[in-house]
Design brief:
HSP40/DNAj peptide-binding domain; 374 residues; alpha+beta; zinc ion binding; 9 helices; cytoplasm; HSP40/DnaJ_pept-bd; ATP binding; Helix Hairpins; 15 strands; heat shock protein binding
């Protein structure tokens, strides 16, 4: 089981953005590879701290994590939230947080100081995936065709002549305070230090083409309508030899079931029975999300009775167990009666046994609703 992100950073759930950033900086400096050369355990802790900050430092991701835990980011391997942290990604995205703690550079990672070259990241893609209640109950792996931007076969890049491959342009100007030096990303290569060298046929001006790819998406059981999963590295690619692809954001859409209604992890089902079945009792076979079950109807069962099948609902996405399957009994009143049937009910109309006689333990409709939602 993955460790709690708040625990990794040593903060509580009420921590604000400033406290989260401060806690991450402290952990990152403590386990930084420059301070712990060759220490694999420190390297893993360094990666975990970055993974925790990537989620908790983003208000939207933090809200999803608080609601669904690690399951909110399952669905693909690699990348943030998926346990596949890359050192260069960490320094590329969070290097500015270290400030001057390591003299403005990071050994072995290309000198991520004040004038580092930028690793271009491709844009994210978003798709909707429709799931049935049965698929949500069991969890499912979907193979989806995605049209994404990729580097064309045979494309090559070379060092940018404008910035000499540094990714930034330095300007020196004379001011009343003396000579001032400023540095800005190179407008030609957008800070990557590379420009197109060879453009294959059919590629755009950056050496990119659109290609269709089948992506496998693992969807955990218990997901809810609207939840977003991330498949790292399956978004659009970016130009450049050292670029990294964007992510594929998967939005879950729950399709309506013909007979079942969802309420959180609980499932509701309306069971209609006849007067005779209500009076005599018996048994009924019910289709649940995990197969057929046979339930017993006691003699004299009343309309509005709720039968509960414990644990037969949907699994919790936070792995807290399963909800329940709630069967709402409805006694069906026939709309038309033949002569013989009418005569029977006319005869029984005044029979004491057919007169309503609710007992103290017979709950009203509103009591049943209150009990159900409690």
């Amino acid at each position: 089981m993955k460790k709690d992100y708040y625990e990794i950073l040593g903060i509580d759930k009420s921590a604000d953005a400033a406290a989260i950033k401060k806690a991450y900086r402290k952990k990152a400096i403590e386990y930084h590879p420059d301070k712990n050369p060759g220490d694999k355990e420190a390297e893993e802790k360094f990666k975990l701290a970055a993974e925790a900050y990537e989620v908790l430092g983003d208000p939207d991701k933090r809200a999803k994590y608080d609601q669904y835990g690690h399951a909110a980011f399952e669905g693909g391997a690699g990348g943030f939230g998926g346990g596949g942290m890359n050192m260069e990604d960490i320094f590329s995205q969070f290097g500015d947080i270290f400030g001057g703690a390591f003299g403005g550079g990071f050994s072995g990672f290309g000198g991520f100081g004040g004038g580092r070259t930028a690793r271009l990241k491709g844009s994210n893609l978003r798709i909707k995936v429709k799931l049935t209640l049965e698929e949500i109950a069991a969890g499912v792996e979907k193979k989806i065709k995605v049209k994404r931007k990729k580097q064309a076969d045979g494309v090559s890049y070379k060092s940018c002549s404008q910035c000499n491959g540094t990714g930034h342009i330095t300007k020196i100007s004379n001011t009343i305070l003396g000579r001032m030096q400023t540095s800005a990303p190179c407008p030609t290569c957008k800070g990557s230090g590379q420009i197109l060298n060879h453009k294959p046929a059919g590629a755009d001006s950056e050496g990119m083409v659109f290609a269709e790819e089948v992506v496998s998406i693992k969807i955990p059981a218990g997901v809810t309508d609207g939840i977003q999963l991330k498949v790292s590295g399956k978004g659009n690619e970016a130009p450049g030899a050292n670029s990294i692809p964007g992510d594929l954001i998967v939005v879950i859409e729950e399709t309506e079931h013909a007979t079942l209604k969802r309420e959180g992890e609980n499932i509701h089902y309306d069971l209609y029975i006849s007067f005779a079945e209500a009076a005599l009792g018996g048994s009924k076979e019910i289709d649940t999300l995990t197969g057929k079950v046979r339930i017993k109807l006691e003699e004299g069962i009343q309309s509005g009775k709720i039968l509960r099948l414990k644990g037969k609902g949907l699994p919790s996405i936070q792995r807290y167990g399963n909800g329940d399957f709630l069967i709402h009994v409805n006694v069906w009143t026939p709309k038309k009666l033949n002569k013989e049937q009418k005569a029977f009910f006319e005869k029984m109309k005044e029979d004491p046994n057919f007169q309503p006689d609710p007992q103290k333990d017979d709950k009203s409709f509103f009591e049943k609703v209150k009990e159900m939602f409690a």
